[in-house]
Amino acid sequence: MDDIIKVENLSKSYGQLVAVNNFSFSVKKGTVFGLLGANGAGKSTTVECVLGTKPFDSGTVSILGLDPNVNRKKLFEKVGVQFQEANYQENIRVEELCEITASLYQNPADYKALLAQFGIAEKSKTLVKELSGGQKQRLFIILALIPNPQVVFLDELTTGLDARARRDVWQILKELKEQGLTILLTSHFMDEVECLCDHICILKKGNIVFDGTVKEAIEKSPHNKLEDAYLWYTDEEVLKHENL
User: Fold this and answer.
1) Which residues form the ABC transporter domain (predicted)?
2) d(CA 96, CA 225)
3) Which residue in 10, 27, 94, 156 has a CA-CA distance of 20 to 30 Å to 243?
4) Around Cβ 143, how many Cβ atoms within 10 Å?
C-alpha cells in the first residue's frame, strides 16, 4: 500500500522545551493510525506540523505526496480536519455552516446524507450554540468529511459522546475506511483505539516510546490489557499511584 502520510525526522521546540524530537512515521492508504500520549506528549504539535499549520524546526512531511507548506490549497481539497477545540460561528444554523463548508470545495460530499448518517439530521435548522456537546462533536466530524477527503485527521473524535453514539461513530469510520479513507486520530480512549486502529504510536515528552500494532503494544508490556499497557509505556501508572 502507498504511504498517504509520510513524516521523517520531525522536530519542533519552543525555546528550551522540545515538543517533538526526531519523530518519523508513515500511514498507509485505507488504514487508521492512532497517535497516543498523555497531555503535553507532543500529539497536537505533531498534527499541526504535519498539516502545515505550525512551522517545524527540521524534518520532512508529505501528505498524498504533497508538501503541506508548499501545496496547501491543492492538498486541502483532499484532506479533512476535525480539532477537539474547534472554533466555529455559534450563531449560525447547522445546515448553513455545512453549506458554507461545502462551498469551499470542488467535489464536496452530500452534507445532508452525512447529517443523517451521524444522527443529527433533525438538527439542521438548529443554531450551533444550541447543540449539545455530543451533537457538536458529531457536527465537527461531519465538517471534516464534507471535503470528501482521501485522508482525515480526527482529534479526540468521540469526546462528549455517550456510549451508543461513540459506537455508532466507530461503525461509520470503519465503513469509510473500507471505502479507502485514511484516518489519523488522537484519542485517550483505549477501547476506541482497540476498535479502530491498525497501527499506533505512543509519544512521551515528544519521543516515541512505542510504534506498532495494538497486539504488539500489549505483548511488549507486562500487561494483558491495552489501557494498562498504555499507562505503563507513558509512566502514567506510576504517576497515578504517586499522587494518591
Assistant:
1) 5-230
2) 44
3) 156
4) 22
- C-alpha cell, 50: 504535519
**Cell 507548506 appears where?**
69
How many CB atoms within 10 Å of residue 162?
Answer: 11
Does the pLDDT value for residue 240 go beyond 70? no
What is d(CA 174, CA 185) in angstroms, rounded to the nearest whole number?
13
CATH superfamily of 1-78+150-243: P-loop containing nucleotide triphosphate hydrolases (3.40.50.300)
> Which parts of the chain fold into alpha helices (H)?
43-51, 72-75, 94-103, 111-117, 133-145, 163-178, 190-196, 214-219, 226-234, 236-242
- List the chain domain ranges: 1-78+150-243, 86-149
Identity of the amino acid at 113 = A
Q: CA angle, corner 45, sides to 34 and 111, nearest 5?
A: 60
pLDDT digits (tens, 9 = 90+) for 98-154: 999 999 999 999 999 999 999 999 999 999 999 988 888 889 899 999 999 999 999
What is the DSSP track for 118-136? TT-GGGTTSBGGGS-HHHH
